[in-house]
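Weekly structure sync, notes
Attendees: PL, DS, HV (note-taker this week)

Item 1: Flavohemoprotein
DS walked through the input record. Source organism listed as Bradyrhizobium ivorense. Sequence as pasted into the shared doc:
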Amino acid sequence: MLAMLHALVAGASKRDVCWLYGARNGSEHPFASETRQLLGALPRHHSQICYSAPDPEDRLHIDFDVRGHLDMRVIEQLNLPRDGDFYICGPTGFMSDLSAGLASFGVAKDRIRTEIFGTGPLMTPGIAASPRQTPHVPAGPPGSGPMVSFARSGLNVRWGSSFKSLLELAEACDVPVRWSCRTGVCHNCETGLVAGNVSYQPEPIDAAADGNLLICCSRPEGNVVIDL
Ligand code: FES
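Item 1 (cont.): predicted structure, written out as tokens:
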């Protein structure tokens, strides 16, 4: 998206350009000043920045425009032209919600383009692939924490404090997993939580669906059963 903005500025575009951006707060808003500068060079630009959890130092109408998530409610209020070209980049849930919302809004499907936030080549094969090795307990001394059960793999292991996330534990056990960002953004690691509860560090940008968890940034709060 940033590259597109640079290209528009380099070509002295006179097009209407509307830049919509959602972040948790200013500390998680990369390239904010660069973007602002580029938009300032486009004579027909509009911008709407949404912060879902602004920090006290984030200034309304200066650093951001809307308190809340970037969603269809925001887009409908902007009354964007239905014959515009829409480029969406973000987590899969965010993109599918907006794509469906824009289609209901009257935007033709061939005018909606999406790009997943994350780096494709890092994606691992996922739970459908065959494990390279039979899942096993991790090397080293056993953990003393809650029991983590990987249901599909038929493996029960104790959580250990040396792991930063359930994803790290699964990898140490050769349980097949999929992931991309490893920071709670892309949802590629979203998996069914059959039983138990987890806590998040960091908090994901968008919560996992009911009954699911993001294994890349979660730890067990008591015994858990995971659909892996
Ligand atoms: S790997 Fe991206 S949210 Fe977990």
